[in-house]
Amino acid sequence: MTDITTVPSLFKLVVLLDVFSRFPLTFRVFWKEPTSDEVATLVECASHRFGRPKHFVTDKGSQFTGEPFRSKLRDLGVQQRFGAVGRRGSIAIIERFWRTLKEMLDVRFLPPLSISHLEEKVDRALFYYSTLRPHQGLGGATPTEIYFGLTPATESAETPPRASSRDPAESVVLPFEVAYLDPERSLPFLIPKDIAA
């Protein structure tokens, strides 16, 4: 599945997403609306790296109905499918993905300074989204675990201790520390103390 979004109001972002695992395969940032040929090239690169899909879901934007894109899918032996025309939510997985990604990028108050700055932020956010952030829709697994067939960490996770009272003198020692993937401290994750030490 792929789609295009505007980030924040200047750049265009294209992401190819594996629907089953929610794993982002690749992305590219553009100064302006990408052409059908540019999106076709992105699909070709992803198919060489990850294999070709059986179906490819898009909306009916000109990039996806243009001959270069459709021809590339035919060459790869991929069947194109469309979300329902004019119906919001018809490609809900990618719409939810955009919402989550934009929240992680936090570009409303800290807009990117250049394409390379935005690419760095998107790369970091996609790494976080796919490897460190458990997904409720995947039963607590990460997209990386599902895509690569790894045993989800949630299967061996232990419930952290709970404080028995609210008295600060009765503090509980937690078996983990909170770390952040980004300097803005908006992408938190837990590290077991035996690894952090």
Describe the structure.
- Helix 1 packs parallel to helix 3.
- It is elongated and about 70 Å long.
- The termini are far apart.
- With 197 residues, the protein is α+β, with helices and mostly antiparallel strands.
- It folds into two domains: 146 residues, Nucleotidyltransferase, domain 5, CATH 3.30.420.10; 39 residues, no CATH class.
- The longest helix has 18 residues.
End-to-end Cα distance: 41 Å
Largest sheet: 3 strands, antiparallel
Tell me the strand order in the biggest sheet.
1-2-3
Helical element count? 7
Helix content: 25-40%
Low-confidence parts? none
Tell me the name of the CATH class of the largest domain. Answer: Alpha Beta
Please name the fourth-level CATH homologous superfamily of the largest domain.
Ribonuclease H-like superfamily/Ribonuclease H
Task: Please state roughly what percent of the residues sit in beta strands, choosing from under 5%, 5-15%, 15-25%, 25-35%, 35-45% or over 45%.
Answer: 15-25%
Question: Which descriptors apply to this entry?
Answer:
single chain; 197 residues; Nucleotidyltransferase, domain 5; 2 domains; three-stranded antiparallel sheet; two-stranded parallel ribbon; 20% strand; elongated
Q: What's this model, at a glance?
A:
This protein is of the alpha+beta class and 197 residues long. It has helices at 36-50, 62-65, 67-76, 92-105, 115-132, 143-147, 193-196, and strands at 2-7, 11-18, 23-30, 55-58, 79-82, 176-180, 188-192.
